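G., the chain you wanted modeled:
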Amino acid sequence: MKDLGETDANCTDPRIKDSPARQLQADAQTPVLAVNSFPEVRPMFAVQQLVECRRDSIDAVLEEWQSRWPTLCVLALLPEKEKSHVPLLQRCANRLNLPLIGAIFPALLGQPGFMTEGAWLLCLERAPARFLLADLQDQGQARLVEAIQAAHQQTWPDALENCTLFTIFDAMVPNIGSLMEQVHVSLAEQPRYLGVSAGSETFQPMPCLFDNEKIVGNGVLGILLPNAPRAVVCHEYSVSESRFWASSSHGNRIESIDNRPAFEVYQALVKSEYGVDLTRDNFYQLAVHFPFGVMTAVDVLVRIPVSLGDDGSLYCVGEIPPHSMLRLLCAPKQNDSRCIQVIQSAFAETAQFTDPHPLFFFYCAGRKLHFEEHAATELEQVKRATNCSNLYGALSLGEIDSLDELLLPRFHNAALVCWPQRTR
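Predicted structure as tokens:
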């Protein structure tokens, strides 16, 4: 464990897990990623299948599953390239009267690596308590709290604290972090939080969440799962020596840093810390390698700049709370990243996952942009480190987990989400 004030010349990073947006006014330490214990858990996905987006392929899988698990619910993951096939999935599920929920991501993940064709169909053998909300800008907090409470009624007598709330947000929702914090405070009992963001890698609006009847944007899909396995979430980005303030920010937009135009300060920091000349012309190629870190009372949350305003303002993935203390981060080189060691250590803590098992996995799109062709290497390392028999998931646009001790939800960029699954 290293102090936040330390600099790592090799850009080997500190630990990330979601946390409430509280500003730090004094030095703090980044805690070592809490290694989750894995209690006796219920099987979550009975089976998963990658299918071609053709009616005969989808029908064959769903018909077989229905004969084996009559109370099933289907969770479908589609890559953006296949978004036009959502109505086909809906028709196939409706023909068999099967509950369907799903989301569209930039790409899928599987044993071959990153994929832009096909669809993952995941079989929840018992339809879980679930909800789909659109247009969260309209009373989003109250509606989300109400939906979680209604879902909990369906899982009774399981205590909410023994449940995992798995959420898939539309990445275009601008206040995911603060929204989850507000929901957390509003609940009498708190679940364990885990989630990702879906949508287009271009960060252009696109309806990306669906069920049997509709496809929506600016919303959230939620699934409440009693006694689900714990997940490991980490990023391992190093922290520079610089410390500065977001003197003016609104949502995910930073107008000024230390009372100067945000981009002007950002340019100077990247140059002084890492010797890189950042310009408007190369911003989109280079900014992903040098994200901001929002300092909280317990950790540092990654915020990747993705857009540059004409006025010198910066737009990030995730909120920058007003007057946040910020640090400049450096994405690690593939050979220097400690993520794999962290994941391997976490999995070694439990004897329940020593045998080969399926792994539900999400990889941040911003991380992939940073590692480029080396992202495939890291994916292979994850497979070996977790001893997974089958890796399935998607490329995400943001990640959510819980601070273990307090179950506080935290919103990440650049993270890996490893969710081991037991089978029957």
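The first strand starts at residue 45 and ends at 51.

Shout if anything looks off.
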